[in-house]
Amino acid sequence: MLSASPALSAPLPSSTTPVLTPGTAPRLSTVMSGPVRLAVKQWGDPRRPTIVLVHGYPDNSAVWHPVAELLSHDFHVVAYDVRGAGASDRPARIRDYRLDKLKDDFVAVIDHVSPHRPVHLVAHDWGSIQSWEAVTEPALQSRILSFTSCSGPCLDHIGHWFRQRLAHPTWRNIKQLLIQSVKSWYIYFFQMPLLPGLLWRAGVGRAWPKLVRLLEGTQVETNPTQVADGVHGVQLYRANMLPRLLRPRLRHTTVPVQVLVPRRDLYVSPWLTEDLHRWTDKLWRREYTAGHWMPASHPAEMAGAVRRFVQFTSRSAAAA
């Protein structure tokens, strides 16, 4: 269920979301980002506005298929396997998963699918974390018409969020810090050598759909690359978490931002988005009764929110 938030800076128009029906297979291609090959999928008419979907961990682009099929009725939709996932290359070195490399991957993809027109960006979990790097990069903001973020805050913003609450240790702030620290247990675990990979190979990968269903009641599809996605995707945490949280930068954006907040997210607390007005010029914040894997559990609601925001920001940009 959608609820308005005080962070909404303007109303969004209502629209009807198409019913999800079996769609046509995406068109497949590959893009080179330096030495790394990225697997890209496209749906819909390339002459229409382009929406780029970026997945999180430990998923690959398949998690977006239901949302992509719904949006492809009206838009040119693109999803890609991030480095380390799906059919894309899996670099071995930790430093090859840094945010600047992930930003370069996004640029390589949009250079390929929409070289002459800006795109609308939609991202979930780690896809959103890495997308903030592009959205807050001044040189790239003219290439992004809008950004819809779900369950993936900017690491620099979170570093400042932690500092602000430590500097003002009210009961509410300390409670938020403690709860989020517990929710983030896996981040500390992923810093350990060998053990996360061993667990993925020992059975977590095969059991992943069942685990997600037990944790939040969401049905995720069986993924043939799940073990490899889990093993290699851990490098995202090792390459970026500690540097950005301990030494946060000032990262601002002029891109219109819509934040979709699942209230039942077991990993990302809703209040992590409370300070976003400090870093955005135009912000919309919408809460849902949903768990972390909203693209899988609520594809129609997510596609509807994206469609309305894309249509709204496109009209605003045309009128400017």
TrEMBL record:
Residues 1-22 have a biased composition (Low complexity). Residues 1-26 are annotated as: Disordered. One of its GO terms (molecular function) is hydrolase activity. Keywords: Hydrolase. SUPFAM superfamilies: alpha/beta-Hydrolases. The keyword Hydrolase applies. Pfam families: Abhydrolase_1. Residues 49-295 form the AB hydrolase-1 domain. InterPro entries: AB_hydrolase_1, AB_hydrolase_fold, Epox_hydrolase-like. Signal peptide: none annotated. The keyword Hydrolase applies. This is Alpha/beta fold hydrolase.
